[in-house]
Every structure is written in C-alpha cells, then in structure tokens.
Amino acid sequence: MTQADTKTFDSYIIKGVGGFYYVKTADGVVECKPRGIFRKRKITPVAGDFVRLEQEGGSFVIAEILPRKNLFIRPPVANLDYLFIVASTVQPVPSTRVIDKLTAIAVNKGVRPVLVLTKTDLQPDGGLGDIYRHAGIPVIAVDHATGAGLEEVKSYLPGHICAVCGNSGVGKSTLLNALLPQLERQTGDISQKLGRGRHTTREVELLEAFGGLLADTPGFASLDTSRALHIPKEELQHAFPEFEPYFGQCKFTGCAHISEKGCAVLQALQEGEIEPSRYESYAALYQEAKDVKEWEL
Known about the structure:
By secondary structure, the chain is of the alpha/beta class.
C-alpha cells in the first residue's frame, strides 16, 4: 500500500460553529474567530485547515490559513489525504456511476480514494471489487460481524486526514462506530465545548483516530457532486488513473478518448485493459462537462 507523506498536526481547525472556530493546539483546544480580512477576501476557514493564531485583545484570532492541499465545499473540509467511499453489495445496490464520480472528484482534488465494501456477508460483491482493483483503486471488504477489514481501514489513518462518504444505508455510520466505538466518551469534553447537540449537525468535526484525523461529517450522505465540484473536460482524463499509461500514445494531440481514430485509451478498452463500466462513466462525465457552460458554474 502506497500512502501519501505523513504529517504532524499542529494548530488545525477541529470544527466551526456559528462563526466561532475551535483550533487544536499543543496547549489544547482554543476557541477563536477569524480576522475580518478573511471575510473581505471571501475566504471561509473550514475543518482541516492548518492555521496560525495570534492574540488580540485578550483572545485568540485566526491570523493566517496555511496553504491548502485541497478544499471541499460540501462537506466543508480541507487537506484530505484519503476518502473512504462506502458502498454496500445489497440494499442499496451499488452504482458504479456514483462510485466513479466520487473517485474522479477525489483524484481531481489530490485525494486518494479507497473503496470500502459492506454487507458482503449478505451478498458477494459480484466482481465490483475487481473492477476497482483493476483501476488501481484500493478495495477493502468490511464485515462488521467479524471485524474483518477494519484493521486495513485503520492502516490508512496514521499521519493522514481522512473522510468517509457514502449513500444512505450503505453502512457509513456503522463503519465510523466500529472504528471509534468510544467516540462519545473520548470527545465528550471537546464536544460539549463545541456545542454538539445544541447546533445543527451539518458541521464537520475532525476526530483523532489511530494517529491521524477522521472527519465526522454528520448530515452528509455523500460529497456534493453538483457543479460546485465540476471537473473541466480537459482535466477529466487525469481523474481516471488507469488511463495514464496511454497518455501520449494517441494518434491525435488533444485526444478526448471518445471516438477518435487511433485512440490508445479506446484500444486499451477493446483489449480489456480498462474496465467497460469505468470507461462508460468517463464518457458520461465527459459529456456532462462538455455541456456545462462557464457562466453556469
């Protein structure tokens, strides 16, 4: 398993509630507000931001947001390393189109997707896992009855910021509870300060887990895959890692890999090197991107 460079976590935003932000520092959790300059620049701090604090008038303020690796708007979280995409083998039936859009968004943002399959004890995955292993995307089958797969999920956490997404009913909450069964007890003091239970649950909270940070995103079944996360058609090919070996081999420069003669990607598809469902998702997403006008974004 190849993982992103690990990091140490110094002064990062755990959560934001009602204009206040809660920053974990070496001395504990600090409540603060951002300086007004952020509002003027239309920059909103989010969970996962690494920040520099300064004292001002006897209280702390966020003076600087350090450069972000990536930023998601819904859910609002920054600097993700891994995204666990949870899909069940049955009820609800998995959609490769949905999974492929989520993996594409993740890769486009510099996040490494990991597919987590649940309910395999009720129904085998029918080859779903093989599709994504062939595409170079890690796949973990989790059985909550036996605990199988949980250690593999945990292995991605040390030194990384991770998040979990998945449609309703796939077992996302069950996975979070299995990873952090003592969640309420461990975060009780912080959660009381952060106002858990007194505010909307549409806030992201970062939780310390196995040497890393896990984004708890209550209220969000999935990433917002609307045009707010639009991938330009020219960049879409890079969001499908299995296409990369064929870049530069197409007959025509700027090949869209749709219907062009001499396309190396289409040739690889015909030869079974690229999964048909993955290519179909690429073609559908390309058409969507092609139809979006700049003024609509």
